[in-house]
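Feature request, filed as a ticket because there's no other form

It would be nice if the structure record came with a short human-readable summary line next to the tokens. Right now we just get the raw output. Example of a typical job, pasted below so the devs can see what we mean:
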Amino acid sequence: MDPELEAFIPLFPQTDLADPPTARTRFAELATAAPAPETGDMTVEDHTVPGDPDVPVRIYSPHGARGAVVWLHGGGFVMGNLDTEHPWATRIAAGSGAVLISVGYRLAPEHPYPAALDDAYAVLRWTAEHAAELGVAPDRIAVGGHSAGGGLAAAVALRARDERGPAIRFQLLNQPALDDRQETWSARNFTDTPWFNRGKAATAWQHYLGGAPATPYAAPARADDLSGLPAAYIATAELCPNRDEDLGYGLRLLQAGVSVELHQWPGTFHGSQAIVSAEVSQRQNAELGAVLRRALAN
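Raw output as currently delivered:
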């Protein structure tokens, strides 16, 4: 493990996803303690996207933006909201120069699949319909997210392809949760890795699926056909149970004719980019913005 990251492990609060209310409180305390960049070069406003029910979003609009990204927060499908994601949404919007629409999707177990996906897809459709008002071109829309949010972004791309929905130029999947089966080497063996491990992954999937069988829109790794999907960037952490399913998904996308950039970050663990003082975290966070900037500018 990267020594700069390892030094912070004793400071992490314990979270038990079997107790969602307490987990949410502790996650919020940790997430909102992270420093957020200044927002002087962008406007930030809360909005509501019409849906069933309506979906809260927070829109970050850097000056001179040309593209947009529908951004989905992490939290194991159970935790997270617009406020916990604010430091990261601000950072990605600033780094990419893109309008970022942060989605406050419904959380499991109170709202199991497909609630979060329906919310995310409603925001994608709204973004495409209101591209001119957002100041972006309708053919420069990406989807992206971290962890559970990365899995949701991949699912949104699948659904948009199958339903001939809004055109998605790019998908940014950072340490995404893609496979409920947990059959890969990393999923089976990373039982005590920092912050996120096999046990937490299993609990997260149980909450999200709510006892129903997983479909490809719930767990994108289950999709048989990955052709015709948007170009992708997939980042993995070395000490993360999601690692091998993410790398496998990237290889399958390549084999299906989809352009993919894969980046495996050595010495990192799931979510460790939140430790912004570490040099490797600074490189990770800078790359997320740069990747989106390139994808939406060309």
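Something like this underneath would help us a lot:
The longest strand covers residues 260-269.
The chain has a mean pLDDT of 96.
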